[in-house]
Amino acid sequence: MRQTPNPKLSVAPMMDWTDPACRYLLRLITRHTLLYTEMVPAQALWHGRAERFLAGDASEHPVAVQLGGSDPQQLAHGAHLAQVWGYDEVNLNVGCPSDRVQSGRFGACLMREPDLVADLVRAMREASDLPVTVKSRIGVDHDDHYDQLCAFVDTVASAGADGLIVHARKAWLSGLSPKQNREIPALRHDMVAQLKADFPQLTIVLNGGIKDLAAAEHWGEAVDGVMIGREAYHNPWLLAEADQRIFAAPGAPKAPDRASVARQYRDYVACRHYAGVPISRYTRHLMGLFQGLPGARVWRRALSEAAARPGAGSEIIDEALDQWAECAASVRFEASVASA
């Protein structure tokens, strides 16, 4: 079996969110957490749009690319490009329940076609030396019995998949929006843990409903790794202790303070932002950086309002930092007076 990146903790692939700028910011906070791209349509790569979808920064490693599709030739081409562009893993999306994805015959609907998924995995393995993983649900609609999940996993593993990332909810392919599919179907973490017990040779990563490192540590005892989704985006600082707590990296330093991370990200933005591109494309990833701290609301408002100014650039991050610091200092002063 090919060596996969350490799967103990990862941040889920999220459409419109985990773009290169987001991944750069997260990497300033944690060195070891595995990051994923947004889902990349294999068809788009087939038609020559690799630069658009695969360009990133060298600092993002370890980083995996997630592909969506159902054509073996296109997915093989995508897996080859993932290796050429220097990714550490290539992942096949068999978990997204959106109508748009289903219309293209990929995502969660493929769980009903395990033999096809196996063919896709084989094609990807033959085209690339990268580890090939599959991200799925525990089932779809009423096809959600554990024996059905085991049959799917067995078929995919036999085709050479190096690991599975399993969202511990089934997907309803009609009647629920993608957002509802992330919230309404019941979580079955126990089912994913049982998968690891029944397939000990296979890397199994648990996804769904994990909101902090304590939960990651808990479930990490039953499976090979845990994937955090939207919580890591809305509150990225929850990853600040990941290198020490989850990976036990020797001598791993704590992430720099939040203001320092914001300034490092500002430098990244200053090098990449150009006229005509809304600065909010970059600053939106910073909104949750001070989540839970005094002045967090001031920080978000300052970024939002400044980003709307014509010609706004990376300097608005410094302006927002100044407003946040002033507000936080005021709160600390009032607290000290109250306690005196």
From TrEMBL:
Keyword Zinc-finger: no
Function comment: Catalyzes the synthesis of 5,6-dihydrouridine (D), a modified base found in the D-loop of most tRNAs, via the reduction of the C5-C6 double bond in target uridines. Specifically modifies U20 and U20a in tRNAs.
Family: Belongs to the dus family. Belongs to the Dus family. DusA subfamily.
tRNA-binding is among the record's keywords: yes
Gene responsible for this protein: dusA
UniProt-listed NCBIfam families: PRK11815.1 (NF008774), yjbN (TIGR00742)
Enzyme Commission number(s) from the entry: 1.3.1.91
Species of provenance: Spiribacter salinus M19-40
Interacts with tRNA, annotated site positions: N93, K179, R182, R297, R300
Enzymatic reactions: 5,6-dihydrouridine(20) in tRNA + NADP(+) = uridine(20) in tRNA + NADPH + H(+); 5,6-dihydrouridine(20) in tRNA + NAD(+) = uridine(20) in tRNA + NADH + H(+); 5,6-dihydrouridine(20a) in tRNA + NAD(+) = uridine(20a) in tRNA + NADH + H(+); 5,6-dihydrouridine(20a) in tRNA + NADP(+) = uridine(20a) in tRNA + NADPH + H(+)
Annotated active site: C96
Protein's name according to its UniProt entry: tRNA-dihydrouridine(20/20a) synthase
PANTHER family: FMN-LINKED OXIDOREDUCTASES SUPERFAMILY PROTEIN (PTHR42907:SF1)
Cofactor(s) of this protein: FMN
Keywords: Flavoprotein, FMN, NADP, Nucleotide-binding, Oxidoreductase, RNA-binding, tRNA processing, tRNA-binding
InterPro entries for the chain: Aldolase_TIM, DUS-like_FMN-bd, DUS_fam, DusA, tRNA_hU_synthase_CS
Pfam families: Dus
